[in-house]
Amino acid sequence: MPAPTLVAVAHGSRDPRSAATVAALMDQVRWARPDVPAHLAFLDLNAPSVGQVLDAVVADGERHAVVVPLLLGSAFHARVDLPGLLAEASMRHPRLHITQGNVFGADLRLISLLHHRVREFCTTHGWDDRIGIALAAVGSSSAAANQDTARLARRFAARTDYPTEVCFATTQPSLSHAVQRLRARGAEKLLVAPWFLAPGLLTDRLRDQEPDLPHTMPLGPDPALAEVVWDRYDAASARPLPLTA
């Protein structure tokens, strides 16, 4: 049996930096396994759409697609939007088997990558003590998803020994709130560590909240992300396919 086609699905953004970063990540994904067909699709705001890519996969004669969300959290997009789009594609193409993989989540490799971004900044700027980290994420209407991010911040702090406070671009607590908490904990040098795959409008919004604070680079593109994409693909590919008549 040929390997299933990989369809990596990003959120999409009006900011061209976001799509460019995701495209660069996909170059790393394809380089890692050039024998597996790998396509990029977007949930919104960019092309091609999920439906367009899956239509093209069928046109190429493929029978099995593994869809990996390029999403850090399991919130509305991963739980509702994407499954709905895949169900629509399945109705159009009943002979195409579609398997949805898991989101990135708080993978230890990504926590290590975030730590690397922080260390890189601190080394470059000569920071060595009384450093506080504001771990900044998108935020969600799902309280459970936000709690997952807060747990991620605690894991990051435990792993790195940096005092760390979580904050969100779209909900509370805000970056300003995280700054107040870090100052109260004795941090003198504050650094924003974006838990984002790519720069975009929301990372700019965070910069506008506290314009004097420095920021590390977002997570992507990076070979560690490409490795996680293939791990999610492998786990989804290993699930048994349904029996057909």
What can you tell me about this protein's structure?
By secondary structure, the chain is an alpha/beta fold. It folds into two domains: 5-105 and 222-237, Rossmann fold, CATH 3.40.50; 108-209, Rossmann fold. It is built from eight helices and seven strands, in the order βαβαβαβαβαβαβαα. It has helices at residues 16-32, 50-59, 76-92, 108-125, 143-160, 175-184, 201-209, 223-237, and strands spanning 5-10, 38-42, 64-69, 97-100, 131-137, 164-168, 189-194. The mean pLDDT is 94. Pfam families: CbiX (PF01903). This is Sirohydrochlorin chelatase.
Question: Roughly what fraction of the amino acids lie in strands?
Answer: 15-25%
The count of domains is: 2
Helix coverage percent: 40-55%
Task: Give start-end ranges of low-pLDDT stretches.
Answer: none
Widest sheet, order of strands: 2-1-3-4
What's the Cα radius of gyration? 19 Å
Number of helices: 8
Q: Could you name the CATH topology of the largest domain?
A: Rossmann fold
Q: Tell me the series of helices and strands, N- to C-terminal.
A: EHEHEHEHEHEHEHH
Return the CATH class of the largest domain. Answer: Alpha Beta
Indicate the CATH architecture of the largest domain: 3-Layer(aba) Sandwich
Mean of pLDDT: 94
Task: Tell me the distance between the termini.
Answer: 18 Å
Structural class assignment: alpha/beta
For the sheet with most strands, the description reads: 4 strands, parallel
Protein name: Sirohydrochlorin chelatase
Keywords: Lyase, Metal-binding
Organism: Nocardia speluncae
GO molecular function, one term: metal ion binding
